[in-house]
Amino acid sequence: MINYLFKNSVFTLLLLLLSFDCYSQCTGCTVTNPTSSNYTFATNSVVCFTTGTTTMSDVAFQNNSKICIASSATLIIQNNINSTSGTNVTFEIAGTLQFNQSPNINSSLTVNIANGGILRAGSNGNNNFTFSGTNNTIINNGTIDVGVLGFSGNGTNLVDNYNLFSITQNINISGTTTFRNFGTINVGASYNNNSTSTYLNCGTINSTVGYNLGGGKIMNTGTFNVGTGSIDMAGNSRLENYGTFYSKGIINGANTSVIYNEGLMKITTWQPNGATMNGPTSSSKKGYTYFLNTVNPNGAKIGPNLDLTKYSQYEATMVKAGTQGQSAIFNSTPTYINSSGTTTTAALANVTYDCTGSGSCSAPVVTVTNICTNTDGSFPPVANNDTFAINAGSSSAASVLANDLEQYNGVAATTSNVILTQVSASNPNVTLNTATGLVQVGSGVVSGTYTINYQICRTSLTSSCSTAIVTVNVTGVASAVCYKPGVTSGTSLSTNEGITSLARANPGDANWPGVRKGAWVILESKTKGFVLNRLTTTQVSAIPTIDVKEGMMVYNTTLNCLQINTDGTTAGWKCFDTQTCPD
Amino acid sequence: MKNFYLLNFILIFNMFNAQVAIGKITLESASSSLEFGSENRGLVLPWATSAASVADVVNGTLIFDINDKKTKVYSGNAWKDLTIAINGAAETSLQDGLAEQTNAKVAIGALSSTPGILVLEDSNKAMILPKVASPHLNIVAPTPGMIVYDTVKKMLLVFNGTVWTFWKAS
């Protein structure tokens, strides 16, 4: 259901609304508004809280139980929670679910929080919440407030945050855990990750202090702010930045850790310890990295396609250091590498120092927006808008895929590596041929500008999609419809004949019909029309060929149309049903 | 030629083989009910109070509806708008205060009960529209409700008092 690339805010809103609908409705309730102080959410039950505030003391969750809290309802669980490892429990929260203690739930949890819904540990949101079940899924469109967030099972955990996830203390992780953040995650203390921890951020993550990446991975396509603590990149820790990454503390690298930057990184202190800092493989892009403190490279491998700039302060305003260059940033020469990882020179690695100062940047600063990675860390396809000028009855010269990519930073999109679909079209005769990617314009289409919305999804990951708009300027056919003002200058011709059903007192009235201009005859009646000859198609055909004249008009009772002869031949009878323009 | 008919009666032109030509002497076609001359003139349809005011209307009836200032044809048992544009204008004071003679009718061809101020009765004839080259350029001060055939573009033109609307063969 979720597409990962939000091309515009309308689309985002639509997804949020869909999510809201999915999670806010309590259907199939087997129990509604229970009031017992100690309560067991029984096996396979759907327990719904639809209104008011319900307070329970001790609760037990049995397998496949589901709690559903409507938007106007609150459930407070005051004391103990009993749940069993290996069971599955679902929370559907559109209202508020509050645990007054620090919940530690052994069941595998599925938590869906709707927009406006709240999940809270502790009355002030500062208590710990531990997911001890094997596999947990949290989809948050509302608000989650916890103290320490813990995942202690050894299975798979997925957190999709679309709104606000507030963790006032640490995050402790085991198992394979993926955070995808489309909204805002605030973390008050450090977090401890492992090699299978992944943070995919296209929203904003604000981390008050640092964290131990522990061999895990961060992909930032949004804004990632880290406070004054250390970011420890042990083992194979990998930090990929395509957006804006700001570290106020120390980044401690390791020999096998990698920072990949093609966006903008503001680093205060870097201790590489042999770490690698890569830029984009192509010089058509460049990663911009700022440093506040001088770096001891200590075996650091730098390149390719990076620009390194020294700053003297980041806050309150950014102030660039007066002296730039390698020696301003490194206290000894680092190892420059090219895109193959081979040692080379700074020039060949296209590693520059403050290229903006010398106006010699091979590519500008680009911080991506609106691109969110998939759960597997891969990028969605990139569909770019197209504009074509096409004659009516023709097709575009190029495919809409010509400027699209199978993935961001990936290969060109083709009809084999992406699935192309037409989402909508403003004119049913201006369409996308999804087999070829060409835009087709029907022969009857009038001049004008039309649009087609299309979507491409990766063939290898069909849930990974992107949309774009094709603007089609149709040319070559005159505008179908126009209006022309009547001519007022020149000598007008008075009308000499009138047929009227009105009781005109004076037939010699100089005002009528002479006042009406430009007519052979004026018909006048308030309740009667002018009735044409009414002929069937057979009767029209029976008019002798020699008598058929251009401009003859009948009402054809077979075809139910005004039928006018256009050329004085029997073949020239046409229904005049199409509004047009003489231009 | 200046003919003016005040119709307090039913006028029937030439009961058999009825044909009327206005503005010329020689008929162009032996199968025409109504023909016109070659000046830059059109035909002005009756200004009906509204489409709804036309009683017992039959398919093939043309009016200019002064309620919305649109030329309309009763086609397929419904009024069809031939003007489309909504900027019509017509100064109706000359007819507003006058009473209608409800039994008035001019028929060309064998008289029937079909209502209309002018009814072309024959089913083996057709009228020939007033034919003008580029009427929208050449008819000066056209009257609202006018219809005319454009011999250059082979179009039917209707005028709403402000603009011409153009129709072609579909």
Q: Which short descriptors sum up this protein?
A:
heterodimer, A: 583 residues, mainly beta, 17-stranded mixed sheet, 16-stranded mixed sheet, 4 helices, extended, disordered N terminus, B: 170 residues, 5-stranded mixed sheet, 4-stranded mixed sheet, 2 helices, 35% strand
Can you offer a commentary on this structure?
Chain A is mainly beta and 583 residues long. In chain A, a hairpin with a 5-residue loop joins strand 39 (335-337) and strand 40. The two termini of chain A are 50 Å apart. Chain B has helices spanning 93-96, 135-138; strands at 4-6, 10-13, 20-22, 34-36, 42-44, 47-48, 61-65, 70-75, 78-81, 105-108, 118-120, 127-128, 131-132, 146-150, 155-159, 163-168. Chain B is globular, with a radius of gyration of 16 Å. Mean pLDDT of chain B is 86; it is low at 1-16. The interface between A and B is large, with 81 and 104 residues.
Q: Helices and strands of chain B: which structural class?
A: mainly beta
How much β-strand is present in the residues of chain B? 35-45%
- DSSP helix count of chain B? 2
In which range does the helix fraction of chain A lie?
under 10%
End-to-end gap of chain A: 50 Å
Average pLDDT confidence of chain B is 86
Summarize it.
The complex is a heterodimer of chains A (583) and B (170). By secondary structure, chain A is mainly β. Chain A contains 4 helices and 56 strands.
SSE map:
The complex is a heterodimer of chains A (583) and B (170).
Chain A: H1 9-24, E1 31-32, E2 39-41, E3 46-49, E4 52-56, E5 59-61, E6 65-69, E7 73-77, E8 81-83, E9 88-93, E10 96-99, E11 104-105, E12 108-113, E13 118-121, E14 129-131, E15 136-140, E16 143-146, E17 149-151, E18 156-161, E19 164-167, E20 171-173, E21 176-181, E22 184-187, E23 191-192, E24 197-201, E25 204-207, E26 211-212, E27 217-220, E28 223-226, E29 230-232, E30 238-241, E31 244-252, E32 258-261, E33 264-271, E34 276-278, E35 287-291, E36 301-302, E37 306-313, E38 319-320, H2 326-329, E39 335-337, E40 343-344, E41 351-353, H3 355-358, E42 386-391, E43 418-425, E44 430-432, E45 439-441, E46 448-458, E47 461-475, E48 483-485, E49 498-500, E50 519-524, E51 530-531, E52 534-535, H4 537-542, E53 552-556, E54 561-565, E55 573-575, E56 578-580
Parallel strand pairs in A: 1-3, 2-5, 3-6, 4-7, 5-8, 6-9, 7-10, 9-12, 10-13, 11-14, 12-15, 13-16, 14-17, 15-18, 16-19, 17-20, 18-21, 19-22, 20-23, 21-24, 22-25, 24-27, 25-28, 26-29, 27-30, 28-31, 29-31, 30-32, 31-33, 32-34, 33-35, 34-36, 35-37, 36-39, 37-41, 42-47, 49-50, 52-53
Antiparallel strand pairs in A: 37-38, 39-40, 43-46, 44-45, 46-47, 53-54, 54-55
Chain B: E1 4-6, E2 10-13, E3 20-22, E4 34-36, E5 42-44, E6 47-48, E7 61-65, E8 70-75, E9 78-81, H1 93-96, E10 105-108, E11 118-120, E12 127-128, E13 131-132, H2 135-138, E14 146-150, E15 155-159, E16 163-168
Parallel strand pairs in B: 2-10, 3-4, 6-7, 10-11, 13-14
Antiparallel strand pairs in B: 5-14, 7-8, 8-9, 14-15, 15-16
